[in-house]
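Appendix C: a fully annotated inverse folding record. The material below is reproduced so that readers can follow the format used throughout the book. The structure is listed first as tokens, followed by the designed sequence.
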């Protein structure tokens, strides 16, 4: 514990540029403490008080935010609307300790200093209403434009930082993102249309119908953008169009979502398909060939039921099916036949869970989960050819049982313990324990100390992908393991204010990383020895009486290789985030600003790219009654030039191959959306 406290002092003392934020956080806290004893007008308190806000992801049951055994961040539908977020990736960028990279194909989430290039968000578990979204071929946690739901269907997003395998099994390595969809409280319809920079066009419809206990939700959306020309200095030569990818950043997607509720029964289904141009000549392709593109499709359905069997016993169960299809069209030689790269997976799942409060002072949760991965297929072939470079299908089954006990040791102390046992047909048996001690020092201040272990099983892509011309397999991969220690202090002096501080340490072993073999220049996945990250986070949030919101956070982290002590690639050491939203003309006009500062990072070529600060602004206007609403957003308001680290897959077909050092991001961009409600 003393080591963790020393981490905070080390980080804070070393970065004077962040002292202003720390002072700001302290000032907000003192102001809130001073107002804690002032009389509060109960009629003005918002529906979702920060103190009493309930979360479900940390323990798989509803509990107050202050009583969750670990750190939880909640982004509500109101926050999403005020700040104009249009993707899950943009929502996650607002979370402390999170940074998002974009390689013009997918968005990748880094957390607490770890965002390994080439990792498809495999170390974050993404859920939709508690159902696993990560597929079983790539284990990808979709957060970008490939995510199958439109943000208008989201009630809130809960992010639980730290290991979550004690409840969720594999992939809950660094955290769990649970996207909770909107309920069906009444009947109504909303229709939206929008335009954005680079020729973006979008249309959405969201309708609900309610009659007694029966509720129905239907949502559909589509988007298209021609994209713009992009310049890559590493590819700048006369034979490569002087490094300009002409019109290859195009994007199209369609999404459907439906939900049916009847008392304790709920059914939902979703479908999405995305087509994206690939301008970066990844995997050794010919640069600036318009045939290069990728396609993603997500399909899922779930039926769940909840019932109270007695005053002290609750039951919940669900069955579901999910499918993911990937199709890549690649060009490896000028004028050659297209190479077709495919991956598709299908999983059927079932879960049963019991919650018992019959034993005095205990809240017991026990559950069992079974998953049958009936399809885990990888295929690679040339268009028009019967010869396959790769044809693999490795079905498997997985099963897990878990138990958690929330034990009250007196009036001020809670001990939360949990254990999950998983069996994977490829990796065998794995145990994941978790323990947290909560001490309510005062009615306003809660201290939490936690320990947890997590793992991630190698996916089919990492084990079996081998085409002979750019990848080779490694079926002997071992599961990744993670041990985490964390101390958290949470302060809730009044309903509208909260502050938190945490220090943590992660220890990893057998991390899986994309590697280039120096002998044949083929890519493959291998277990690196170990890594360690430690850091500190500060955050304060204030919800003002008149409807304004101010949130500030600072993150300091050090992520290093366990043997060489080398700074990990794509790992910023410092991050700062400020969010402010306020009404400008009563209920008719609202403005919101967010500022995100990220420090420099090391690239995979052992170089550094500079840090950057981004300012986004949103103006939200509505007619009386909110029947018609206009949202105007400006991303990167100051037109800052910045780039994200490129992974080792980004190299072209020239000889010798030219690798991207970094991938430039968009400058100032505008988007406008008009919404009509009936």
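Designed amino acids, in order:
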């Amino acid at each position: 514990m003393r080591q963790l406290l020393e981490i905070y002092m080390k980080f804070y003392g070393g970065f004077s540029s962040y002292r202003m934020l720390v002072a700001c956080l302290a000032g907000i806290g003192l102001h809130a403490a001073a107002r804690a004893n002032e009389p509060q007008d109960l009629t003005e308190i918002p529906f979702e008080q920060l103190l009493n806000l309930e979360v479900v992801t940390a323990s798989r049951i509803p509990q107050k935010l202050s009583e969750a055994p670990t750190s939880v961040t909640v982004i509500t539908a109101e926050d999403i609307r005020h700040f104009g977020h249009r993707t899950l990736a943009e929502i996650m960028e607002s979370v402390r300790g999170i940074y998002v990279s974009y390689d013009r194909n997918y968005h990748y989430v880094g957390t607490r200093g770890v965002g390994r290039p080439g990792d498809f968000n495999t170390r974050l578990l993404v859920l939709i209403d508690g159902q696993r979204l990560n597929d079983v071929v790539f284990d990808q946690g979709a957060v970008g434009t490939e995510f199958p739901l439109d943000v208008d269907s989201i009630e809130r997003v809960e992010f639980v930082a730290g290991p979550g395998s004690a409840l969720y099994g594999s992939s809950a390595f660094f955290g769990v993102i649970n996207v909770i969809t909107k309920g069906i409280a009444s009947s109504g319809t909303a229709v939206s249309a929008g335009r954005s920079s680079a020729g973006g066009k979008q249309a959405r419809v969201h309708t609900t119908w309610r009659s007694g206990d029966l509720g129905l939700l239907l949502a559909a959306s589509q988007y298209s953008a021609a994209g713009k020309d992009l310049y890559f200095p590493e590819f700048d030569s006369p034979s490569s169009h002087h490094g300009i990818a002409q019109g290859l950043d195009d994007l199209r997607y369609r999404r459907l979502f439906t939900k049916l509720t009847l008392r304790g029964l709920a059914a939902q289904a979703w479908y999405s398909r995305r087509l994206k141009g690939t301008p970066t000549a990844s995997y050794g392709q010919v640069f600036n060939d318009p045939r290069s593109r990728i396609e993603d499709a997500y399909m899922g359905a779930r039926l769940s039921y909840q019932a109270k069997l007695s005053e002290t016993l609750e039951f919940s169960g669900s069955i579901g099916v999910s499918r993911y299809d990937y199709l890549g069209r690649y060009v490896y030689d000028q004028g050659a036949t297209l190479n077709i790269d495919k991956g598709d997976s299908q999983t059927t799942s079932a879960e049963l869970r019991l919650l018992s409060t019959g034993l005095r002072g205990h809240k017991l949760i026990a559950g069992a989960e079974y998953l049958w991965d009936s399809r885990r297929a990888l295929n690679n072939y040339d268009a028009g050819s019967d010869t396959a470079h790769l044809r693999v299908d490795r079905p498997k089954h997985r099963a897990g049982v878990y138990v958690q006990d929330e034990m009250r040791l007196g009036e001020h102390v809670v001990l939360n313990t949990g254990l999950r046992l998983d069996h994977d047909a490829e990796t065998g048996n794995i145990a994941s324990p978790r323990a947290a001690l909560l001490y309510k020092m005062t009615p306003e201040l809660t201290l939490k100390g936690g320990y947890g272990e997590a793992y991630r099983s190698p996916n089919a892509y990492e084990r079996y992908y081998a085409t002979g011309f750019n990848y080779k397999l490694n079926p002997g991969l071992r599961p990744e393991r993670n041990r985490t220690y964390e101390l958290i202090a949470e302060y809730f002096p009044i309903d509208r204010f909260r502050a938190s501080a945490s220090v943590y340490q992660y220890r990893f072993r057998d991390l899986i990383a994309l590697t280039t073999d120096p002998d044949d220049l083929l890519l493959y996945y291998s277990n690196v020895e170990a890594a360690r990250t430690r850091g500190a986070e500060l955050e304060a949030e204030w919800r003002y009486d008149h409807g304004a919101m101010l949130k500030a956070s600072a993150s300091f982290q050090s992520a290093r290789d366990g043997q060489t002590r080398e700074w990990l690639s794509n790992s910023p050491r410092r991050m700062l985030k400020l969010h402010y939203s306020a009404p400008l003309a009563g209920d008719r006009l609202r403005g919101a600003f967010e500022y995100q500062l990220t420090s420099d990072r090391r690239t995979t070529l052992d170089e550094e790219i500079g840090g950057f600060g981004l300012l986004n602004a949103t103006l939200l206007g509505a007619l009386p009654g909110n029947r018609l609403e206009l949202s105007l957003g400006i991303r990167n308001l100051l037109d800052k030039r910045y780039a994200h680290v490129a992974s080792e897959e980004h190299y072209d077909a020239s000889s010798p191959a030219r690798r991207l050092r970094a991938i430039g991001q968009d400058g100032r961009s505008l988007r406008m959306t008009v919404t009509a409600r009936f």
